[in-house]
Structure formats: C-alpha cells, structure tokens
Amino acid sequence: MKDLFGKAIFDFYTKNSPEDIITETSISEEDEMSVEYLFRSYNEMPKIEQKALQLAKGKILDVGCGAGSHALSLQNERSLDVTAIDISEKAIETCRLRGIKNAKVENILDFDGEKFDTILLLMNGTGIFGQLKNCNSYLTKLKSLLNPGGQILIDSSDIIYMFDEDEDGGKWIPSENGYYGELVFNISYKGEKEEPFNWLYLDYNTLQNAAIANDLNCELVLEGDHYDYLARLTI
C-alpha cells in the first residue's frame, strides 16, 4: 500500500498543499472526499460518533483511528486513557503531532499484550473486516482484547439502498458479488492511485448474527439518518 490516505491526512495537518481524496467503489462512481472532515471536533461529529464517545469508558482502544479526532476528544476533553492504532504510518505520525499520547502503527489482528474496557471502531468500523468471511477472525480478536465487563462500540451502514428496485420493491443485487455489503475501494490522491482494497458494510442483523456466533451480545444503540447505526458488543 502507498498509504495515500495517510499522506492526505499528513499533508492537511502540515499544510503541504493538501487536496481532496478521490474515492470510487465497485458500485459507485468517483467522488471527492474533503480531508478536513477527518479533523472534525466533537461538536462537528455525527450523532452516532458523539454517542459512541459518550459511552466510552475506562481504558480505550481506538481502532483505525485515522487523523485521531475521536481519540483526541476522549483524551483532551474527558482525560481518558486512549491508545490509537492504525495501519497508516503517516496517519499515526499526524496523531502524534496532534498530541495523542499513545498512537501506534498496528494492525488490530497483530495487536497484543493489553486489554481494554472500550474498543472503538468508528466511521464504518466494520470496513476493516474486508469481507464477510473475515468477521469471525476480527470479532474473536476484538473479544480477546476486552477486560471483564468491557464493550466494543462499532458502527456501519446497511447499503441495500444503493441498489436498484424492481417493480415489486425487490432489490437487484448482482449474484456474483456474494454479500451485497462487500465493496472494493479505489483511492486516488495527487494523481497517485492506491492498490484496490476490500471494505465491508454490514447491515445490523448480519452483524448481530456474527456476534452471536462468537458468543457476544449485540445491542442496537442508535440509528442514524441514513441507514447507519451504532452497535454495542459485550461478552
């Protein structure tokens, strides 16, 4: 990976001629994403993210932290002990520059040695699972990092709305796709293209079934304005 997402984050923070990130998926056209959005304050966050931060307690792990806005809010505004991890070196470098005390370049599947009271996976937290078949390995890993009484706060969206309807109200979903929430993402930044990567959107019922299969309770905490939701998983 070229870490273009991380480069965009770093460029924005260091004022190095930042540009929008161009995203495209296997079911959608090119779209521009403003990097500034990743630097939002608590008051600028969607209700689902605000609710997750309100529920966060104890020792916290922020998985796929990006520019670190969630971790920064918890650390600075609530004085909580937060570890922020991301696979992007440039994103983590930015997190450290922004003042996050504990930021590490880590893949959650390789992360070990600590346990947490709250694990956060926000901004379509199920995305890092990549494909439906990987849910078990990720949920098993996340569960192993929880302290007794701990919680996983994770958000996603049911993207069924993106598919065409037939006359009877049914959805036209290409059969070769497998689960309809499995997308392939393409990212471009400053004329460079990232390697395509898998990204998973999970509807709530599918997440709940995966949680139950891994001996986790799954609770629907909040539904957003656009098919998105926040869920809480506990042992």
Would you mind describing this structure in some detail?
- This protein is an alpha/beta fold.
- The chain contains six helices and twelve strands.
- It has helices spanning 4-13, 47-55, 69-78, 89-97, 135-144, 204-213; strands at 21-25, 28-33, 59-63, 81-86, 103-105, 116-121, 146-157, 182-189, 192-193, 197-200, 217-223, 228-234.
- The strands form two sheets. The chain has a seven-stranded mixed beta sheet, with helices on both faces.
- Strand 3, helix 3 and strand 4 (81-86) form a beta-alpha-beta unit.
- Helix 1 packs parallel to helix 4.
- The chain is globular.
- The model has no long low-confidence stretch (mean pLDDT 94).
- It holds the Pfam family Methyltransf_31.
- Its EC number is 2.1.1.222, 2.1.1.64.
- Keywords: Methyltransferase, Transferase.
- This is Class I SAM-dependent methyltransferase.
